[in-house]
Amino acid sequence: MMKPWKAVKRLVPLFAMLALLLSACGREDLSVLRPQGPVAEGQLGLIKLSITIMIVVMLIVFGIAAYVWIKYRRKPGQNDIPKQVEGNHKLEIIWTAIPLVLVLILAVATVQKVFAFGEDYSKDANAVKVKVTSHLFWWEFTYPDYGITTAQDMIIPTGKKIALELKTADVLHSFWVPSLGGKTDTNTDGTINKAWLEATNEGVYLGKCAELCGKSHAFMEFKVKAVSPESFDRWVEAMKAPVQTIQDPAVAEVFKTQCLSCHAIGDQGGPLGPNLTGIGSRETVASILHNAEASGKPIDGKPVKDNLVEWLTDPQKVKPGNKMPNPKEDLGLTDAEIEAIADYLANSKLSY
Amino acid sequence: MDWLTTVDHKKIAILYLVAGGLFFGIGGIEALLIRVQLAKPMNDFVSAQQFNELITMHGTTMIFLGVMPVIFALMNAVIPLQIGARDVAFPFLNALGFWTFLFGGLLLNLSWLMGGAPDAGWTSYTPLSSTTYSLTHGVDFYTIGLQIAGLGTLIGGINFLATIITMRAPGMSFMRMPMFTWTTFVTSAMILFAFPAITVGLVLLTFDRILGANFFNVESGGNPVLWQHIFWIFGHPEVYILILPAFGVISEVVSTFSRKRLFGYSSMVFATILIAFLGFMVWAHHMFTTGMGPVANALFSIATMLIAVPTGIKIFNWLFTMWGGQIRFTTANLFASGFIPTFVMGGVTGVMLASAPADYQYHDTYFVVAHFHYVIVGGLVLGLFAGLHYWWPKMFGRVLNEKLGKWEFWTFIIGFHMTFFVQHFLGLLGMQRRVFTYLPNQGFDLLNLISTIGAFLMGVGVILFLVNIAITARQPKGVPGDVWEDGRTLEWSIASPPEEYNFKQIPLVRGIDAFWKEKMAGNKEMTPAEPVGPIHMPSPTILPFIMSVGLFIAGLGFMFANDDFGNGAMNFLFNNYIVVGLGLAITFLSMLLRSLFDDHGWHIEPDELNGKEVKA
Q1: What is the 3-state secondary structure of chain A?
Q2: Mind telling me how many Å the CA of A236 is from chain B's nearest CA?
Q3: pLDDT attached to residue A21
């Protein structure tokens, strides 16, 4: 018969290995365990408090269990009948009262934070307001105070509260930037949510959709790019500046009739697809093809133009289930036109 | 044929076990396919669509068709014996419950062959599950399959409530009932209150999808968040419906193999009822990120944390049952012992999740996946394995091979911790759940690989269990009634397997752990509470089977009511609801038959009882 301590012996190296492995705590721009702003810090604080209490509880339970398993094994030839104990009021009160106290400690901390993170900063003059709209399978960010709209990369100034208003254009999604703060669902009209976050340091943080939304749920990523307040102001100006048009009139016409019927660039085009203003200086194409020119988070990719060509050649292959028509089959674009449009978009950059 | 018409609780238990085992196997294969897909980043073993179908069917199958029936198998096999009854209160309903469950389950799984499985997750959140975004009939299979299967569960729950209330042997007061009977009782009460919620929810979703209703359609004034509330008002009690019977099993096994009575019996009963009560008060903790506002989040946080208290009481009671005992590590007790620390780990992450602001980070990540697999697999499934090894001799008259049992336990539990322990960290490192793949270089790769290897080790454990069953089935029958020698409750006082009528004479219960009490008083058998007399038995009947077939046909007919088959005859039959009518007619005619012709059953006469074999 396998003895219990053998199991312990087997598991110890496994867990030790894991502990070592996890000492890194994951990526700075992605892990819950390496917070980069006050919201995520507060949440990690709660996680730490609760896990500390829970480890104590576990050690007590495991300790008692190990003790009884070893001490009270039935020995060969042991035939007397053990004393049939009905219970013990003192013990039972202890193990009812102590957990109750532990739970209350956690409850107090929880309630404080629930209200702190539930604060509405949308009326705060110092806060930057961003309306987040989720779509299958991309993110739209509108800055109502500045009258600008962008997609996939949310640019925010450091050290300021960002007041978010979140809703969806289709199915439910959930907005999550682990290193800056927990998630908020993007619901349909009628149940629109508010939330806030703040980035202490400049950097690019990885964001994800956390609610199953269809085929490309896994690819519905986005980035939050925290820049200095001055740089943020320059970005706002650059977003508002007039956009250069395509030189070749034939391609310009195709771009206008086929692309701008859904997408917008600068002050032209429609609101159905992601806004393309400054797409050449974004982190990704279609949130999943990472650009070599960008921060390389989490992976280095190909040059932005190659990514654009790959995307425009067959969007379904890159991101199954997305809503974009196939430029070649559905919209009748030629390879040369795709090449030219990709070239134009790749050079549509913003300096800030 | 005997199996199609049986109303004997012991045979229905075996039917539940076989059907539940089958679906458990299907769910397990789905789990392994999921893990293969996630073994490395940017894998293309299955497509995004197939992956969503796999996760949906894995969750739905495991919960509704895998573990629930195995729980019902144990309840059916054990409850009438534990309370000293000859059958359940409504043997006909018992059979009906099984067949509706089976046909509901078959209907759901037919979706794989008929145009695609449901793909909106086992929670089936709208609008993703609406016809706008889920284009196949998958979600229809989900709503209608679960509706039919859910009927079976509801029927079963009502049956056990009535059985336990009315059919306890003389002397067995409520506070003398074995713990497994208590948890079954409370579980059945929870089923009675929780399942109507999902029934209503499924009706609404079915109407939205098939009849064009607008309950969850925003444009017409519906609200998708409503579905979340309805689903979780059922869904949260459901997890307690799953775990409470396991608590009962552990209580029986730990006490028997420690040769001690259960420590703190009355506090155990109280804790069970409290968990059930609180279980209905906490559904919205699944919705902290939905945006209910700080007040609701705070209240549901606190309510959820409170559940830790009665659960803690149970854990300590088990530990102190063993304290001072003489513990034998049979396979059943190994599983029960493995349950305690594993379930505690699942419980503590539950308390962590209860803290709403922290949950904003955990929610819908692999941390949650790890948590609920710790409670459902590490809790419930280990409990079921313990129960199956413990009661197998009572059900089949043969003891499962102990040596192989040890191997099952160790492969399964090591595989389990390998699979799911690392997933806590995956979640904290930023991996959301239900993703069909992930980019490399995010720190997810190695942990996912470990998890996949662990999953296959668990698979080995399950296969060893099947091998064990096969080997054991070749052994000759005939083990003593009190096969573990330390049996405490009434089921061990009769033959293994019991005669068709269970008890020749209904026993007199003189205290808690009735059989143990008699043994301690030097008696070999229970003292009878009645003289030997004719025993009334229910007649076998095919009607429950036929009624379920009718529901199955009606369900299929309703689902395809709006389809164009490109064939005039088929279109006529389906689009005019003729198939639905036919199916319902079969069901209602069977009900009519059942109502008009009274079946008074039959009797086994006392002189037959003294003969060796009694056959129906």
Answers
A1: CCCHHHHHHHHHHHHHHHHHHHCCCCCCCCCCCCCCCHHHHHHHHHHHHHHHHHHHHHHHHHHHHHHHHHHCECCCCCCCCCCCCCCCHHHHHHHHHHHHHHHHHHHHHHHHHHHHHCCCCCCCCCCEEEEEEEECCEEEEEECCCCEEEECEEEEECCCCEEEEEEECCCCEEEEECCCEEEEEEECCCCCEEEEECCCCCEEEEEEECCCCCHHHHHCEEEEEEECHHHHHHHHHHHHCCCCCCCCHHHHHHHHHHHCCCCEECCEECCCCCCCCCHHHCCEECCCEEECCCCCCCCCCECHHHHHHHHHHCHHHHCCCCCCCCCCCCCCCCHHHHHHHHHHHHCCCCCC
A2: 30
A3: 57
Q: Does residue B426 surpass a pLDDT of 90?
A: yes
CATH topology of domain B2-541+599-610: Cytochrome C Oxidase; Chain A (1.20.210)
Q: What are phi and psi of B225, to 5 degrees?
A: -65, -30
CB-nearest to B358 from A50, A58, A86 is: A50
Determine whether the interchain pair A218/B324 forms a contact, defined as Cβ–Cβ distance below 8 Å: no
By CB atoms closer than 10 A (0-12, 13-18, 19+), residue A139 is buried
Which residues, numbered 241 to 280 in chain A, qualify as contacts with chain B under a Cβ-Cβ cut-off of 8 Å? none
Q: Is the pLDDT of residue B193 over 60?
A: yes
Whether complex ipTM tops 0.95: no
Q: What is the pLDDT of residue B598?
A: 85
Q: Does domain A249-346 have CATH number 3.40.50.720?
A: no
User: What are the residues facing A148 on neighbouring strands?
Assistant: A143
List the domain boundaries for chain B: 2-541+599-610
Residue B616 has pLDDT above 60, yes or no: no
Q: Say if CB B590 and CB B550 are below 8 A apart.
A: yes
Angle at CA of residue B205, ends B31 and A170, nearest 5°: 80
Task: Using a CB–CB cutoff of 8 Å, tell me whether B52 touches chain A.
Answer: yes
Extract the tokens encoding B379: 């809790």
Q: Is B228 helix (H, G, I), strand (E, B) or coil?
A: helix
Pick from B308, B356, B429: CB nearest A114: B356
Confirm whether A26-66+90-228 and A249-346 share one CATH topology.
Answer: yes
Distance of CA B386 to the CA centre of its chain: 15
Peptide bond into B507 cis (omega under 30): no
Distance CA A317, CA B343 (A): 43
Q: How far apart are alpha carbons B307 and B303 in whole angstroms?
A: 7
pLDDT of A3 reads 58
Residue B589's Cβ-side half-sphere holds a number of Cα atoms within 13 Å equal to 10
Coil, strand, or helix at residue B257? helix
* Among B265, B317, B429, beta carbon nearest to A26: B429
CATH class of A26-66+90-228: mainly beta
- The full set of domain ranges for chain A reads 26-66+90-228, 249-346
**What per-residue confidence (pLDDT) applies to A25?**
86
User: Is the pLDDT reported for residue A22 higher than 80?
Assistant: no
Q: What is the pLDDT of residue B615?
A: 38
- Segment 55-84 of chain A within 8 Å of chain B by CB: 57-58, 61-62, 64-65, 68-69, 72-75, 78, 81-84
Per-residue pLDDT tens over the stretch B472-513? 999 998 899 999 999 999 999 999 999 999 999 999 999 999
Residues 6+ apart with CB under 8 A from A261: A269, A270, A272
Chain segment B255-272, per-residue pLDDT in tens: 999 999 999 999 999 999
- A128-135/A162-168 β-pairing: parallel
Q: What is the pTM of this model?
A: 0.94
User: What pLDDT, on the 0 to 100 scale, is given for residue A190?
Assistant: 87
